[in-house]
Structure formats: structure tokens, C-alpha cells
Amino acid sequence: RERRAARRVADLLVELGPTYVKLGQIASCRRELVDTEWAPPLQRLQDQVPAFPGGEAELRRRLGRRFEERFEAVDGAPVAAASLGQVHLATLRDGRRVAVKVQRPNLKAIYDKDVALLRTIFKALDRFKVSVGVDQAWGAIFDDAADLLYREIDYRCEAAHAREFAENFRDAPWVTTPEIFDDLSTEHVLTMAYVPGVSLKDVAAIEADPSLDAKSLARNLARCYLLQFCRHGFFNTDPHAGNLAADAAIPKGRLIVYDFEQAARLDENERAGALMLLEALLDEDAELCVDAFSTMGVLKEGYDREAIVATVADNFRAGRVATGKGAARRGATAAA
Predict the structure, then answer these.
(1) Are 280 and 186 part of one and the same domain?
(2) What would the pLDDT profile of 78-110 be if each residue is shown by its tens digit?
(3) Which of 20, 89, 141, 192 could form a disulfide with 75 if both were Cys (CB 3.0 to 4.6 A apart)?
(4) In total, how many domains does the chain have?
(5) Are residues 308 and 168 in the same domain?
(6) Once rounded to an integer, what is the mean pLDDT over residues 100-125?
(7) Which residues are the signal sequence here (predicted)?
(8) Given this model, what pLDDT does residue 330 score?
(9) What is the mean pLDDT of residues 187-202?
(10) Structural domain for 112, as ranges
(11) Residue 325: its pLDDT value, please?
């Protein structure tokens, strides 16, 4: 019954449009928000959203003369469709294969309408104070989220994020991201090299491919995010499996990161707090967890430390937090 209800909600979010699909995508990755029965139906919103018709026509309209001058052919059926747009494979006149993301028509107007309604709802939540110390100004939180949503619909931001990620990992042969074609990218179109891979969602395919090593891929994924958080201070904030793949052409499989619509930065205190939090999770140390939260600046001034420590400890005891209890701290933090 729960699974059936979740499927209905997922279908409703698709009907409501891209803003609500994006909210469903976020919820599908947050197990503290949805239980195990709800997560799978919502996860299909990550990469199984209905495509919109006329993708090639929209691409022609957005690129103008550049389309006629540079493109030899565009595959009619998209290979992927998501909340903001869809991806078509294409061949350039010089023979190179590319993946072209084209945005859904009239997306900003849809966002304007939906965001105005949702902002009213979130600001109303400020009347209900339930936190024991975490700063939960819901109106401000939504304003920050809305700012991120609007940045997502400018593909020039995504292109800049991908370039920065590529530069940060230029010396790491175990991870890559497709090269961006700046001259064929705009606010509404993103053209990148076609880099095929086996989706990390397809565990059976990874385990069946002798050229791939699931454990190596898992280690590299963890290493990739530790380095983003703790060394570079710049990280992809949408790491669901639909955005990740394994390149079987590289021994054991090279990690491919496809999507940089969402990214964020950590300042020095936040990076130090992230390292502290990692250590606290490995040791299930509630006191150190709260120290990490304080260092990162996520607690309100005058917070009730004793109450928060007790809450964190309760979560550890109940097994609600997946930790590295028993793991060697030195080995787990070496990548950072």
C-alpha cells in the first residue's frame, strides 16, 4: 500500500511540473525524509521523467546558425529526460559524438509561478518552532533553495561547475567528467563530449562486467566526495546514481560524473567541520558531532548543547545513522 501511494505521488509530481519533480528528486535521496517504501518510486524522477516533444527544434532555435554550421545530425529520441531538460546524442560535422542537453521550453516562467506559491508556504512554517538548536528559518532556507533552482536553469553555471571539477581532478585518472563545448553552449543548451558508461544504478550490470570492480568504484566514489568536501571546498550537491557511471574502457572502471546543475562551496570553517564530522561519525562520538556542527556554523547562538548531544547519541544507538564504527580512522580520512 505504501509503495502504491508513493507511485501515485511520483506521478502527481510529474503532472505538476518541473519544480515539483525537482523536489521529488531531492526527497528521493534523503532517507530521513522518506522511508524505504517511498524511496524507489521517487527515485525514478531522477532519470525517468517524460521527455518533451520537439527537442531538436528547440535546439535549433536556441543555437541558431551555430546549429547549421556545426551539427551533422541529431538523434531524434532523447537518451535521458529530467526535470529541467533532456539529452540528445548528436554528431558534429568533424565526426565527434556529443551529448546535448536542451532545456524545457518556458521553464523560467513555470519556476516564477511555482516558487511564488512555495515561498508563501515555507514562510508560514516559520511560525512553528520545533528545533532544539538547529537554525531552521524556513523562509530563509527556501529563499536559498530558490536561488539554487534559478541558477540551475542557467546552463552556463553548470558549464562553469564542470570545468572547475575537471580542473580539481585533472591529475586523478580514476574519475572524469565530459568536456564542455563552450562555443556550442548557452543559457539553455549545454553541449559536452559523449562519454558512455554503465550507470551506477545498474548494480547487476556492474557486477556482470569483468572489466568493472564494484568495490574499487565504491572506494573511488567515496574518495571523490571526501576530496571535494575536505580539500577543494567545492562539491557537486546532487550525487544521485542517475548522475554517475562507470567507464568500462578503463581497468576496474573509471568513475564518470555527468551532471553539475547543483554545486556549492565550503569555507575554511566548514571544511574543518566536515573533517571533524567524519571523525565523529567513524567513532560514533556525539560530543564531537556537536563540535563539528558548531564549527560549521549550523547551530543557533545559545543552543542547548546537552539536548543536541543527547539527540545525536540516541540516533547512533538506534542505528539511524550509517557510520563507520570499527573502521580505522586513519585509513578513512587519508584521502582528505
Answers:
(1) no
(2) 998 888 899 999 999 999 999 999 999 988 888
(3) 89
(4) 4
(5) no
(6) 86
(7) none
(8) 44
(9) 95
(10) 107-147
(11) 60
Q: What is the CATH number of the domain that holds 164?
A: 1.10.510.10
**Domain boundary at 208, 243, 265, which?**
265
Judge whether residue 333 has pLDDT over 70. no
Query: Is 165 in the same domain as 134?
Result: no
In this model, does residue 321 exceed pLDDT 80? no
Looking at the fold, whether 276 and 215 belong to one and the same domain comes out as no
SS (H, E, C) the chain: CHHHHHHHHHHHHHHHCHHHHHHHHHHHCCCCCCCCCCHHHHHHHHCCCCCCCCHHHHHHHHHCHHHHHHEEEECCCCCEECCCEEEEEEEECCCCEEEEEEECCCHHHHHHHHHHHHHHHHHHHHHCCCCCCECCCHHHHHHHHHHHHHHHCCHHHHHHHHHHHHHHCCCCCCEECCCECHHHCCCCEEEEECCCCEECCCHHHHHHCCCECHHHHHHHHHHHHHHHHHHHCEEECCCCHHHEEEECCCCECEEEECCCCCEEECCHHHHHHHHHHHHHHHHCCHHHHHHHHHHHCCECCCCCHHHHHHHHHHHHHCCCCCCCCCCCHHHHHCCC
Residues 230 and 143 both lie in one domain:
no
| Known catalytic membership, residue 238 | yes
212 shares its domain with 136? no
Exactly one of 238, 247, 259, 291 is catalytic; name it.
Answer: 238
Least reliable range by pLDDT among 120-124, 234-238, 269-273: 120-124
Please identify, among 265, 289, 319, the residue that sits at the C-terminal boundary of a domain: 265
pLDDT interval class at 323 (50, 70, 90):
low
- Decide which of 170 and 302 is more confident: 170
Q: Are residues 184 and 68 in the same domain?
A: yes
pTM of the entire predicted model: 0.77
C-alpha cell at 129: 518552532
Residue 68 predicted with pLDDT over 80: yes
* Whether 216 and 317 share a structural domain: no
